[in-house]
What we know:
A: mainly beta, B: 11 strands
Amino acid sequence: YELTQTPSISVSPGQTVTITCSGARLGDTYACWYQQKPGQSPALVIYLDSKRPSGIPERFSGSSSGNTATLTISGAQTMDEAEYFCQAWDRGTAIFGGGTKLTVL
Amino acid sequence: LQLEESGPGLVKPSETLSLSCTVSGASISSSDSYWAWIRQSPGKGLEWIGSIYFSGATYYNPSLQSRRTVSIDWSKNQVSLKVTSVTAADTAIYYCVRHYAYSQLSRDWFDPWGPGILVTVSS
């Protein structure tokens, strides 16, 4: 079972960026999103498809429809440049997407 | 809540990789938490290895088959990972992570993550 993400996206500061994650059974479960900056551990930015942990800016939002989960950054900032991973559970196993490297410049 | 991994950074092929994770700022017996190991390698991205509850109940990723064991030491507030018969494919950064148990696995998430420890398998 796989979660598929676009390998890389490049946007200008202030633009809205959407990062998608698709999986054959994603509609049967919930998606999480993690942000990983170079040299750092991943950090949770979205859980239960659309919930934002405390401390995560409001410009980060999540949604899910059918077998696709989406992370949206409204007004991307240079500090948002990172790799983003989706994650979901499938039959008792946590699965991660391959990651999307976001460049903001 | 903080997690910190420790252990050898270099393991020889065919030997056993052994790591510990010290949990501070929370009890390892918290009813809403599992404690997980996740690894990250350039070739395979992020890979969940397994999670353990304070009761000792475990969930494992079948990809490592029976080579991995996650255990818990309540007296030290520590979680441990062992991977036997390692090969170069086991070279990765290993993270200790809190696995938040919301209500059922499909809703759970991982937060926070420890800083990670790089383990290289080489002779």
